[in-house]
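Sample entry follows:

:::
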Amino acid sequence: MTEIIIFGGTSEGRILAEYCEKRKIPVAVSVATGYGAGLLPESPWLDVHKGPMDREEMEAWIRQKHPRLVMDATHPYAALVTENIRQVCGDNHIPLLRVLRAETPQDEKNGEEAESTVTVETVKEAVDFLAGREGNILVTTGSKELGAFTALEDYRERVYARVLPTSAVLAACEEKGFPGSHIFALQGPFSAEMNVAMLRMASASWLVTKEAGKAGGFEEKLEAAKAAGAGVVVVGRPAQTEGVSLERALEILDGMAPQAAAPSPRLLVLAGAGMGTADTMTVETVKALLDSQAVFGAPRLLEGAKEVFARFGGGRQPEMVGEYLSGPVLQWLEAHPDCRRAAVLFSGDTGFYSGTAGFLREAGKKREWEIRILPGISSLSRMASVLGKSWEDAAIASRHGRQQDVRALAENHKKVFVLTGGDCRAEQICRELEGLPVTVSVGEHLGSRRERVVTGRPEELAKEQFASLAVVWIEEDVQ
């Protein structure tokens, strides 16, 4: 289970995510750009979603993560995103905390600075104000707002813009008619000196900015405008909703961090993978995989796990380790103490000739492990359903690394089910049954697109060649 979801992309969101990572709080972080994702550390405690989401996508993602708490640390001007988060959390009864950015105190904008600063409510109002004034303009409100400035009759000569250095943004600027010589494609943060240099390069008489607070470099812009002798047009931020400061949000996270003195047990899920495909795993097993930081199993089963993450994991994939015996798996986990949630996949059902018992013996000796067992669809169940048979009266045996007289079982039971594998293949079982009045069905690749079930006399099937891991259904001929 994801403890916390953070909607960020801001400096506040990054600080909150790093705080969670250091305290080993499982957190999912949503950022709109690849740049925002690149600022976050790689960690098994961080699950990063990159790219914007509409309301429906956001709701599906939050439901998949089922967090204890959502933190909205988006930009103060991202009003639509904030409203979507509020509605989704309200509809799904998930606690929501809005993290507010500190505003610049009004007493810091006084004297000459206040006289040269104009505050408006919208970007359009800023454009209307500048339409009646002379001088070049440096716009730092972002590329999304730049189109409004094309309403100025001479915008191609007067307007300079500072935007993010991405190909999509630069293409949008060109499409709006802004010449390349008027575009500063740079990634902040920017010092006051850097802002002064850009104002002077643009010969700007006016700087247009949003009131983005200290984290958004607002003070450095005011300082630079004063030094360059430029006026400032400030687009005031939307009215703040109820929320908490960054400092208070960090205090709340402290209360959610695991206590070092009494760490919670590490969770090891032993799960039946059915036939090894995403379609034949139970919903319970799929959820356990999506919550795991590491997944263990034979290569064939790990392919099924990768399919689960490709379809339901939102791009995330945990550590995949090709081990399924208790010794190597527990050794790996001891060497990786940061891994708190892991899953081991067994073919079919955990209680049907699987390695579950070995894990219970070994892991049970260590109190740090909480063991959870999730049953799956056994090959016996699958084979019986394909044949349309009941199996409650069948004798069950395994020749996968075991000794068993299958012929004797067939002589004394009307139905026999046998697992094959290792040194014993299905055609060998058929040779042992030659001469008996029985019908044999061999199933291979059960539950996959390559599933094949062949039925015939043992003498006929003894000439076939079947997959190493196959199952054999033997039934007495009806007189």
Notes: The chain has 19 helices and 21 strands. The two ends are 57 Å apart (CA to CA). The chain has a mean pLDDT of 86. The longest strand covers residues 204-210.
